[in-house]
Amino acid sequence: MTLQEVAQATVNGLLLGGLYAALAVGLSLILGVLRIVNVAHSAVLIAGALVFWQLVNEVGLNPLLAIVPVVAVFYLFGMLLHRGIAHRLAREADSTVLLATFGLLVVIESIVIMIWTTDTRTLRLGPLSGVIRFAELNVPVSRLVASLLAVVVVLVLHALLTRTLVGSAIRGISENRDVATMVGIDVPRLSRHVFAAGIALAAFGGTALALVLPFSPQEHVRWLAWSFLVVIIGGLGSLRNTLLAGLVVGLIEAFVGSTLPFQYTYLVLYGLLAVGLLVRREGLGGTEARAI
After folding, report:
1. Cα–Cα distance list, 288 to 155, 231, 252 (Å)
2. Which residues share a beta bridge with 137?
3. What is the pLDDT of residues 22-69, one digit of tens each?
4. What residues contact 291, with CB distance under 8 A and at least 6 apart?
5. What CA–CA distances, in Å, run from 281 to 26, 273, 286, 287?
6. Which long-range contacts (CB under 8 A, 24 or more apart) does 131-137 make?
7. pTM of structure
8. Residues of 67-92 as b/e, b for ≥16 C-beta within 10 angstroms?
9. How far apart are the C-alpha atoms of 276 and 191, rounded to whole Å?
10. Rounded to the nearest 10 degrees, how much is the dihedral formed by the CA atoms of 240, 244, 245, 246?
11. Of 261, 255, 243, which Cα lies nearest the Cα of 24?
């Protein structure tokens, strides 16, 4: 590869990594705090992308402005889901959690297909459709915006969780729910808001996906696998590690895609994941217990 190709692959990888971080951050939050393996994450992600597409392509909202109502609506949806289903899963066995969230995935997927069918959708980007050319590098505006938004969201959440009293309470819940209750933390109320935030972040990931790539309701399992990949590589650590893992995955994919046929990309990524977990099974986070 020439120096120009290396530089372009690096830019592409970082932008792609920002997208992957956006896809995974909601999954990481719910898993880290509530210990819920939310298999329905990808169905919510695609539902968020489709609502976003509807607001932009059909209603005519500016893509950046349309992100706000999508996140707000799915936050409320997350509150309802927690009240109806998720709060019952806090102390259930992992198999029960998986079955419940898988059932939720099927329900959401079915509703989405009934409303929007299985057609592939492409967002009308408007002012975000251009390409910035700098020092012979091509930077798509939509990918840059999606990646920057992902970085800002993750860093703001990380600061909230590590530098505020509410964040300390949430981290207390993630460590030990019983002790958190004993010291006066309103565990049910905070858990409800954390779950709702995780659902809203999944929808935000859907808006980032729509900004970058065409998407289809039936492709959501692909993004579920990719989200879990990022969370696992990030290890049992903070949301900041999820961002770092997303960037790592994006860079690996960009460089592998530049040097090998496309069909080898997934093989290399999951091979590196397997080797990495054998050598450093706690991932990039450097801890063996989930902490946010």
Report:
1. 22, 13, 24
2. 134
3. 999 999 999 888 888 899 999 999 999 999 999 999 999 999 999 999
4. 32, 171, 174, 175, 236, 237, 238, 285
5. 22, 10, 9, 9
6. 135/7, 136/4, 136/7, 137/7, 137/8, 137/11
7. 0.91
8. beebbebbbebbbebbeeebeebbee
9. 32
10. 100
11. 243
| Amino acid (1-letter code) at residue 254 | A
Contact 123/57 with Cβ under 8 angstroms? Answer: yes
Residue that is written with structure tokens 């970085």 in the block: 151
> Is residue 81 within 8 Å of residue 195, measured between CB atoms?
yes
Integer Cα distance of 182 and 203 in angstroms: 34
Distance of CA 246 to the CA centre of its chain: 9
What is the amino acid identity at position 26?
Answer: G
Q: Residue 234 in contact with residue 25, Cβ under 8 Å? A: no
Cα 45 from Cα 141, distance rounded (Å):
22
Write out pLDDT tens, residues 142-194: 999 999 999 999 999 999 999 999 989 999 988 888 888 888 888 889 999 99
Where b means 16+ CB within 10 Å and e means fewer, 2-31 reads eeeeeebbbbbbbbbbbbbbbbbbbbbbbb
